[in-house]
Amino acid sequence: MSTTTQAQVLTDTNEAAVRPRSKRPLVLGVAATLLVAGLSYWAQERRFEDTDDAAIDADISNISPRVSGNVIAVHVVDNQVVKAGDVLAEIDPKDLKVAVALARAQVAQSDAQLRVEDPSVHITESSNLASVSSSSSDLLSAQAAVSQAKKVASQSAAQLAQAQANDGNIQDERRRAEQLIASGAISKSDLDQHTSAARASTANVEAAHQATQAANDMVREAEAHLTAMQSRLEEVKSNAPRQIETRKASVVWRQAQLDASKAQLEQAELNLSYAQVLAPMDGIVGKKSLSLGDHVAPGQQLMALARTDDVWVTANFRETQLQRLHPGLSAVVHVDALDLDLHGAVDSIGGATGSRFSVLPPENASGNYVKVVQRIPVRIHLEPGQAGMERLRPGMSVEPRVRLE
Questions:
Q1: What is the pLDDT of residue 82?
Q2: 88-109: buried (b, 16+ CB within 10 Å) or exposed (e) per residue?
Q3: CATH code linked to domain 113-270
């Protein structure tokens, strides 16, 4: 082999030995760069939690009537923007107006009955006072009559005693005259006089006796009348408070009837106002399901009203993401439909997982349990006044990113 050939072989061998050693630093540099980038990305990502299971949320009211009737006007269409208090639909108010008129008539009738009944309390009080006064006077008169009757009876008894004493003397004189007439000491005319006087005295005693009995009867009658007057006075005094309480209860009952009539009138007037179905808040109409002439009833859904001036984000984070998540953390929410980032903060964390809030929550006691990572709803409040918020609608998909520090 020539010297030139040997030199060429040595040169190729040296290049082959040197070439692998020259690539190692490059590979190590690339690996180190990727490692640093990976560590930086990992350290950066540890400071955030995000999810794509999130959406814009807001209050959606189901509008229903509070009275039944036929629809005579519909003032909105789907997707129409309305303000709180705007009339959405009208129900025929004729029957409701009749109910108001009847309620007003009932109020007038109850008020008139109360006006008639109310003075009866004072009238009864005055009547009871007069009855007590009259009964007291009658009792005093009866007591006086008893006293007078007893005096008359006493006088009659005295007169009877006097008549009996006189009669005894006269009867003795008559007997002596009868004895004297036999001896001829007195004349026949004298005997006749004594006999007449004796008869008159006997009649006088009988009259006095009758008068005494009559006086005693008058005493008993006066005492009976006195007893009746005492009973009457006690009865009047006992019944007076009851009569007043009865009248007062009647007045209270009439007042209650009036209050009930006024309440019925108020309810009838409210029902009449409910003939106009009003928007309870600002929002956008959707799912309108009524037309002119439809018969509607309380509780029947007529339309939905979505509120767009107060929205928030409901983000369903995995339970493994909640270790450092708490209210107050700042968040950036990316709205897919608008390609827009909005700022907000974590407002609250749900009280249960989404599966527990479902219509048919899972039952894990069947023996076929498979562990699944659960999701818990987190409410994110959006800062007001940001550009583009007026275009947000409930249900829009968003991707929140929560900063954990």
A1: 95
A2: bbbbbbebbeebbeebbebbee
A3: 1.10.287.1700
